[in-house]
Structure formats: C-alpha cells, structure tokens
Amino acid sequence: MSSAGLNLAQLEAVNHLGGPCLVLAGAGSGKTRVITHKIARLIQAGLEANRIAAITFTNKAAAEMRERAGHLVGRDARKVLICTFHALGVRLLREDGAALGLKPQFSILDTDDITSLLKDCGSTTDAATARQWQWTISAWKSAGLNGAAALAQARDEAERSTALIMQRYEERLVAYQAVDFDDLIALPLKLLREHDAVRERWQQKMGHVLVDEYQDTNATQYELLKLLVGERARFTAVGDDDQSIYGWRGATLDNLKRLPQDYPQLKVIKLEQNYRSTSAILRAANNVIGPNPKLFPKTLWSELGEGEPVRVVDCDNEEHEAERAVARIQSLRANSAHKEWRDFAILYRANHQARAFEQSLRRAQIPYKVSGGQSFFDKAEIRDLCAWLRLLVNNDDDPAFLRSATTPKRGIGHTTLQQLGGFATQYKLSLFEALFSHSLPSAVSNRAIGALHEFGRQVNELEYRARHTVGHEAARAFLNEWLKDIGYEQHLYDNEDNEKVAAARWTNVMEFCDWVAGRCGGQIEDAAGTSTETERKTLLEVVQTIALISTLSEREQDQNVVTLSTLHASKGLEWPHVVLVGVNEGLLPFKVDDDELPGEVQQQRIQEERRLMYVGITRAQRTLAVSWLKRRKKGRESVPGAASRFIAEMALDKETVKEDPREKLKALRAEFAQRAKAASDTQKAQA
Ligand SMILES: Nc1ncnc2c1ncn2[C@@H]1O[C@H](COP(=O)(O)OP(=O)(O)OP(=O)(O)O)[C@@H](O)[C@H]1O
Ligand SMILES: [Mg+2]
C-alpha cells in the first residue's frame, strides 16, 4: 500500500493501530477514505484480513467499500468483514445464536411479516394500528428494553397494552425461530453480555473494528461495539456530528460524547480540508449549519476554487420544478465537463416527491434510478398495468403475458400456464401464439381453453382500439373502460385487507392513466386555464415508448443513470452536479412548527432538519441548485408555498448564491429576518 492520496492528519489516523481512534470531521474531508486505507494498512502491518471488521451504514456503502478496499489490497480484501451493523448481527447469531436457543437457520422477518404478526398478537385487522405498535416496539428495542421492562416502565394504559402485545410478539418470534430487524442488534448484545466464552472468543477474533458514519449509531449499537472490542479497544470510528440525521431512529450524539469518557486513551483526530466541493458550495453548507450548537468546532476549507454560485430556482408547482430540474441536467450535460448521467443527482426530503421527477425524466428519455425508496414505476399496481400495455405493443412478451393473464384472476391457473408454456417451448412459439393453436395438449381443460381464448380476444381487441385512439381525452376514456373491463379496481380491494392502502393504489393507477393519456396530445389546459394544442399521437404509439423505457431502466440499474434519492439515503455519497428540490418551509424543514410540541422538542427537530440540509448541500462537488415551490400540493389541494428558511441562510453572503432576478433574494432575506425576529420575540415573551 502507498500513502499516496492521504494528508498528514489522515495518515495519522491510518497509522494509529494500537488503540482507539476517533476521526471527527466535516463532510467530504476523507473520513471514509481513512477507513479503506486503514484496512490496507492493518493488513500490511500483519493483521489477518479475517480479523478486521468494517461497519458501514448501508449495504450499498458496504459494497462500495469492498470495491475500494479491493483496489488497495487485492484479493485479501474479500476476507475482511465489511458490512452493516445488522449484517454483523446476523453473523454473530448464525455462529453463536445457539447459546440463546436460536437455530442457525433462523429467519429474519421483513416489515410486512411483522405487521401481520402484530395484527395477530393484538387481535386487530387494522394494519395502521399494527404499524403504530411496530414503531413503538422498535423504539423500545433500540433503547434496550424488552417486553417485560417496557411493561414495568409503562406510563399509561396505551403503553401498558402495547407492552403486553410486545410480550406476546416476543413469544411468537421464539416459537417461529424468527427475529426482527431490531433483534439483529439486541440479541447479539445479549449474547455477548451473558455468555462469557462467546464474548471472549469474539474479542480475540476482532483484531480491529472500523465504523463509518459513527454519529448515526444508537445506544445498543454502541454497547455492541464496546463488547466486541473489549479492553484492548482496537477500533477506529469516523463521523461528523453535523451529519447526524437518524435521531428519529434512536441514534444519539451522546455516543460521540461518551467515547472520550469510556476510553481515556482515545486518540481524536480532526480533518479540515474538504476534497469534494467548491468553496461556494462549502460556504453555503457552513452558513446553514452555523446556527446549530457545536459539539466540536471545526472549519472546512477547500482548494477546489470558488466555483459557480449556488443557484436558487423558484418554481410554480411540482411539475414545473421537475421540468426545470431536468432542463438543468440537460444543459449542464451539454455544457460542462461532466457528460455522464451518473454525474447528476436530484435529492429530496421524502419518497413521494420523486414522482414528478420520474415522470419528467421519462418524458425526456433520461435513464434514472430511485434509491432509498420505491420508484413509482416499480409499484405492483403500475407494473401490472405496464405488463398489460407491453403485451399490447408486443404480443410475444412472455413475462408480460404471464402477469396480465393472471392479474386480475380470470380462471387461468398455474397448471394451465405450465401446460401452455411446455407446448409453446416445444413448438418455439410465444405464449400468445400458442394460445390460439388448435393442437393444445389434451390435458388442458375446456374451461381453461375458454378462459385463455377470452383473454387473447380481449388483448386483440384492446390492441386494435389502442391503435385507433388519438388525443388525451379519448385515451383517458379508453383507459377507464379498459380498467373496468378487466375489473382492476375490484382486484385491488380484493387483494388488500386495508382499504386505505387499496385506495392509495387506485389513486396511483388513476395518476398513471392521466400521465399516459396526457402523452397522447390534443387540447391541453394548464393550471392557469390556458389551453394549447400539442401533437396528437395514438395510444399505441405512446405505449410503445413507455414500454421501451420501462425495460430500459430495468436493465440500466446502478449503471450510468441519474440518481433520484432521499436526503437520508444520500449520506456518504457525492455527485458532480446536485439539484436539491422541494426546499420549502413544511417540507425541508419538515413540519417543525407544531405548536403542540414543547419548544425544546421543536428546537431539536429543527436542528436535525438543518443537519439534513447540510448533508444535502455537501453531496455536491461542482454545482448545486436549490429549488422551491411557490405553490405545492398538500393532499389533493394546491396551497401557497414559502421558501425554506435554509435558502435565506445559505445566502447570508451575496457571492454564495445566485438567483434571477436578484430582487427576489433580497425579499427572501428580508422575510426571513422578519420571521427570525418574530420567533425570538415570542421566545422572549414566553421567558
Ligand atoms: N487526501 C486526499 N486527497 C485527494 N482526494 C481525497 C483525499 N481524501 C479524500 N479525498 C476524496 O474526497 C472525496 C470525499 O472523501 P470521503 O467520501 O472519504 O469523505 P467523507 O469525510 O467520508 O465524506 P462524508 O462526510 O460525506 O461521508 C472523495 O472523492 C475522496 O476520494
Ligand atoms: Mg463518508
């Protein structure tokens, strides 16, 4: 390994091998790089690769680190245990869970499994209630409480009854030999606490433990780490208190404060040079994080030059914002050194915000992926409809055939499809072609043949009509009729015991149909009532492009594509060009001015939102645009929107931010100053 590409402070951290080390530094200062280089250094110093563990925050981060470590040390990197806290928990339990009565092949429940199990334990059919319990139980578990302990400290009837449900839930898990996500930390902790031999063996094995994104660990993870490293305390933690954004999941900055107390020999190293962003971007970040209380003071600087000012963009509504973001990406791609789609990211506060951007990107035929949440086009109901549409365009699309022939159910069963499939393979036909053959195997019952023929007839008819449907109104009517024909709404309600969920799915379906129909052109009226004539296309033509894109983006996963991501999921990553969207009061910061909450809680929330904004800004390497909505959707309504206070703060010094016309920014600053004054007046009055 060479020491190339590390500054002195980084080298110091990498070379501190004998005892505990904490690297505390701002965004983009090379903390993650310290971890990968330290893995290499440890191996070079003679530590066996399989005695090194590096803990990351997400599986994706783990994969990336494995790759980087691979470049530095070659094949040995594969033996290093690089994983998330949860995956480490799985490892501990698979190897030593027997001490807790757990079989090595225990199963891990996902969120849906847990909801239905809790419904059972609490004798309810309401998924929302069950999810509420799940949330509470999870919070208790992260705080280190089991059902009995939660019961003992319950403050009211509601907590008592949830604690009782939790106890029942725990019994079931034991009976099923299953664990939930929180158990993957809590049980290994119990294991190491209560079983001396197991603990000693693991402490012996762990030559060095490295932890990235340390600021987001919670109390149980802290304990687990402590037991794992033991007295020798050979570990390296890296983190940034300004990027702690998982307070709502129990992460606590106390872990940062406890470290020097629990380990007096702790070596603390600060990094101040940022290698990621231009000075303009860094200043914007520093301005935003400025008002937060400081755990450890630090100043970030960069040698990458001033760069472009941060661009503030005001938008009429969500669609307008999406159009502008896409236009910006296209023009930057044409005019900057960064020509790859992967150089761009659009970041937002909440998953549901992705939708407008997905639609605009599709329209512009730009490949993208949605990380940290489900893509609108990946939702089951939208995939169902796309399967139908794909089949209209291409009758030989067998996967589309299988999905649409059985969704909704229409008397075509698994056996029938298997027989049809066997026949089709034998004669080299597509399923759709096979369906009309006169020599179908005799094993296929007459009733099944009837159902198959009816399905084929329907597809043919739909295809014929789609070919002749032109303009958005006709297309919309066609789509409505089609959904009715196949009984899709009923299908949603039949397959979902929670009506609200079914209704939400149906809303998605309607939105999808509006979108498809809108592509067919004609007289289109915008929100302001102005109508324009756009080019008319047949529904089939439109569906052809949509079908193409949906298969395209499936193949392009994780490749050269624009990233759409929540701010939470963007942690640790970087892109040359970032557009931060929906930077509105009420979105970012998310509803913090809840008068029913005590002032102190509101303060904490706004501080966490501020850190989230800081994380977002510091993802950008070369350019950053921040957009906000003058009107935004709230439920079904459109309400006036206000720019986030963070925009005004970012613009504290004039060079950092650019907006046209400049007047708007002045007004924004004045408004912000007024709001800040009003807030401090109220505080004084309360005091
Ligand atoms: N000494 C260095 N010389 C050159 N480039 C560096 C150096 N240290 C880090 N970098 C580069 O700077 C960028 C940011 O580094 P890294 O991702 O490790 O920062 P970080 O502190 O982990 O950031 P975050 O807080 O966002 O997780 C990366 O592209 C990395 O390769
Ligand atoms: Mg990092």
From TrEMBL:
EC number: 5.6.2.4
Swiss-Prot/TrEMBL keywords: ATP-binding, DNA replication, DNA-binding, Helicase, Hydrolase, Isomerase, Nucleotide-binding
Residues bound to ATP: A25, G26, A27, G28, S29, G30, K31, T32, R276
Pfam name, any one: UvrD-helicase
GO CC annotations on file: cytosol
Gene Ontology molecular function, alphabetical: 3'-5' DNA helicase activity; ATP binding; hydrolase activity; single-stranded DNA binding
SUPFAM superfamilies assigned: P-loop containing nucleoside triphosphate hydrolases
GO biological process: DNA replication; recombinational repair
Ranges where the UvrD-like helicase ATP-binding domain occurs: 4-278
Job of this protein: Rep helicase is a single-stranded DNA-dependent ATPase involved in DNA replication; it can initiate unwinding at a nick in the DNA. It binds to the single-stranded DNA and acts in a progressive fashion along the DNA in the 3' to 5' direction.
Family, similarity comment: Belongs to the helicase family. UvrD subfamily.
HAMAP family: Helicase_Rep (MF_01920)
Protein's recorded name: ATP-dependent DNA helicase Rep
Organism this protein belongs to: Hydrogenophaga crocea
Gene from which the chain derives: rep
